[in-house]
Write a structure and sequence with these properties.
With 205 residues, the protein is α+β, with helices and mostly antiparallel strands. The chain contains 4 helices and 7 strands, in the order E-H-H-H-H-E-E-E-E-E-E. The two termini are 19 Å apart.
Length: 205
């Protein structure tokens, strides 16, 4: 089937069937500005200008790097992809999610085909997956549509398949529940899209 890219990150999401599918970076910076007083002087102004709060923080400088910013955006999109996969597989319907805002091509088609199959059987998924160590392994921003390759560790331990009566279905006792997953992404005008999501089920992590 398939399955936070940016810096390493854990992402909670997902849904998949027997062969799991293929999660984000968000940073908030709070800058406290010193209060102004009526007793300002040239000396005070100079101290305020040279104070740590007036300087550019390392995180802000780091995020200004185009490459790092692109990688962070791609990883965040991959996280969103898994979040919407979770919604789609819980409802056995891609239209019950916003997956089209995060996936296209093979990744989207696979999700559509599999959820349709699930709907006919009356099955669905509950719980979710966790993707850790999401890392951009390759980034090409020279093209009109920038491309990226991602690698992460997919954990489907808590992803449960339900039958038509909403009862958990038995799974192979020796199944590998934590393994490497890779993905190809492409940046469109409105954000990154996951084009392929490939579980490397023979590679534990």
């Amino acid at each position: 089937m398939n399955s936070s890219v940016r810096t390493n990150q854990d992402t909670r999401v997902g849904r998949n069937r027997k062969q799991p599918a293929g999660l984000l970076i968000a940073a908030c910076v709070l800058i406290a500005l010193p209060a102004c007083t009526s007793n300002s002087s040239p000396d005070n102004d100079a101290k305020a200008t040279n104070s740590p709060s007036a300087s550019v923080s390392p995180s802000a400088s780091k995020s200004a790097d185009p490459t790092e910013a692109a990688e962070a955006e791609a990883i965040k999109a991959y996280s969103g992809y898994w979040r919407e996969m979770e919604h789609a597989y819980a409802a056995a319907d891609v239209n019950a999610s916003k997956l089209t805002s995060y996936a296209s091509g093979v990744a989207l088609v696979k999700a559509q085909v599999e959820t349709e199959r699930m709907k006919k059987k009356g099955t669905s998924f509950t719980g979710g997956v966790t993707v850790t160590n999401s890392t951009i392994t390759q980034l090409d921003t020279s093209k009109k549509l920038p491309k990226a390759k991602l690698s992460g560790c997919l954990d489907v331990t808590k992803w449960v398949v339900l039958d038509k009566d909403k009862k958990p279905m038995p799974l192979p006792t020796q199944r590998l529940a934590k393994y490497v997953v890779t993905a190809d992404l492409e940046r469109w005008s409105d954000g990154w899209r996951v084009l392929t999501n490939t579980p490397q089920s023979g590679q534990p992590c």
